[in-house]
């Protein structure tokens, strides 16, 4: 996910993942504005979704229909918001609008109160999934396949937005040779994300299943943001580390000497 202050750029890897999702009969939306983030891919699935392979001819026909729909000029209402040096067009399903409501009568009750409402919310039983395609810039250059702190922070923020997160690292995607292997890879992760989940003790949905693996370099199975649970725990240890460093400096410093003059 890129910040809105930057112009959205669709990478070749992102196009490949989107094409694979369309080949599975899904309709992902690309570059969807969500809060301060711009999601790579967004799609809604029914809870407990399972992928059923369709005949090749049916997949090709559906893909051709979608390509024709994309080529047609669309006339729809959209907002343009400028942040810094770049601008983003918000999707109608994700944009937030301010509605002014007039109170009845006169005096203070007649003031216009802005209310933020979100349009196009999915129906009950629908799982909102964000698919993030992470290229090499999301990982450390000196530690192979180790996510950056900013990437881990993004995952935490998206999970807090009531989104189910599916992460596609570039090094896992590059290992998949055939189109069927890529679809099966995405299907395993989407099934895990759309699985019914119980509410935790705090009433918030659990994020289990997307952090079940600890070895990011070898994981090609199910789960979305695999291997990042332990990293997210240590995401904000700055205060502790600073305190430890300060204590070490104080302990290493020699005691003050008091000079007495006769």
UniProtKB/TrEMBL annotation:
Q: What is the lineage of its organism?
A: Eukaryota, Viridiplantae, Chlorophyta, core chlorophytes, Chlorophyceae
What name does the UniProt record give this protein?
RAP domain-containing protein
Q: Which residues form the RAP domain?
A: 129-188
| Ranges where the record places region Disordered | 53-121, 195-227
**UniProt cross-references to InterPro entries, sorted A to Z:** RAP
What is the organism field in this record? Volvox reticuliferus
Q: Which domain of life is it from?
A: Eukaryota
């Amino acid at each position: 996910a890129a910040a809105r202050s930057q112009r959205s750029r669709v990478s070749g890897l992102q196009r490949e993942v989107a094409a694979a999702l369309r080949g599975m009969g899904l309709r992902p939306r690309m570059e969807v504005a969500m809060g301060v983030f711009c999601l790579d891919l967004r799609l809604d699935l029914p809870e407990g979704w399972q992928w059923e392979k369709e005949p090749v001819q049916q997949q090709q026909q559906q893909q051709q229909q979608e390509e024709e729909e994309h080529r047609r000029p669309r006339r729809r209402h959209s907002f343009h918001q400028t942040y810094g040096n770049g601008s983003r067009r918000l999707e109608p399903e994700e944009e937030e609008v301010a509605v002014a409501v007039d109170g009845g009568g006169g005096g203070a009750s007649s003031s216009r109160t802005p209310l933020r409402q979100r349009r196009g919310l999915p129906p009950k039983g629908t799982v909102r999934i964000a698919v993030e395609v992470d290229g090499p810039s999301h990982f450390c250059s000196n530690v192979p396949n180790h996510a950056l702190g900013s990437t881990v922070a993004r995952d935490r923020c998206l999970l807090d937005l009531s989104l189910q997160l599916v992460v596609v690292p570039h090094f896992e995607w590059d290992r998949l040779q055939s189109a069927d292997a890529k679809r099966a890879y995405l299907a395993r992760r989407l099934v895990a994300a759309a699985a019914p989940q119980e509410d935790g003790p705090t009433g918030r949905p659990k994020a289990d299943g997307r952090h079940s693996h600890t070895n990011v370099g070898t994981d090609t199975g199910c789960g979305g943001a695999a291997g990042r649970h332990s990293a997210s725990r240590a995401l904000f240890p700055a205060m502790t580390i600073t305190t430890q460093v300060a204590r070490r400096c104080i302990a290493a410093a020699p005691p003050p000497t008091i000079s007495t003059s006769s």
